[in-house]
Amino acid sequence: MREKRKQEVPMDPKPHFESLARYNRWANRRLYQIAAQLSDAQFREDRGAFFGSVRGTLNHILVADRVWLERIEGGGPKPSSLDEILHDDFAGLRTAREAEDERLLRVLAATPAERFESALSYRSMAGTPHELPFVQIVTHIFNHQTHHRGQAHTLLSQFGLDAPSIDFVYFLLETK
């Protein structure tokens, strides 16, 4: 006998993404708290990661967020390359990360629910025009951060630091 499918009720994506933005801020704070234990030499040391070092990896996450938020807002800081070092020092980078996490929360709070059903037209860093569903772009922002935070987590572990648990479920348990 064939199982009858229930009709899916579309979820309002805005609260979901606001929750992911809060998780994102939580995970970044935990990661930066441990990264603060690195010496400046360790922070800069090329460990063979995709963006070389903890410095390169954490800067890349910030660069990508700025690129996407500039596309979404139509203004704001616009990095020139994906490997740009926006902040050479850890303290400056940490301050900028905090500000960008707050910016992301503000952008989502100000985004009308209907926008999640629209498309975002933008140009790649190379100038190629693209158009993708807005909801998928926002998904990408969080997925991208998670991907590279995982790389930074590994780098911190390689330095013998007790890298924090940053799984989404722990955020949910801690903040419920």
| Estimated share of beta-strand residues | 5-15%
Mean pLDDT: 94
**Strand line-up of the largest beta sheet:** 1-2
CATH topology, by name, is Four Helix Bundle (Hemerythrin (Met), subunit A)
The coarse silhouette is globular
Distance between the termini: 41 Å
Low-confidence stretches at least 5 residues in length (pLDDT < 50)?
none
Q: What's the total helix number?
A: 6
Number of strands: 2
Folded structure, characterized:
The mean pLDDT is 94. The chain starts with 12 loop residues before the first helix and ends with a helix. The protein has helices spanning 13-35, 40-44, 54-73, 90-110, 134-158, 168-175; strands at residues 119-123, 129-133. It is mainly α and 176 residues long. The chain is globular. Strand 1 and strand 2 form a beta hairpin. Strands 1-2 form a two-stranded antiparallel ribbon.
Spell out the key features of this protein.
176 residues; globular; Four Helix Bundle (Hemerythrin (Met), subunit A); two-stranded antiparallel ribbon; 6% strand; mainly alpha
Q: How are the secondary structure elements laid out?
A:
Layout: H1 13-35, H2 40-44, H3 54-73, H4 90-110, E1 119-123, E2 129-133, H5 134-158, H6 168-175
Antiparallel strand pairs: 1-2
Helix pairs in contact: 1-4, 1-5, 3-4, 3-5
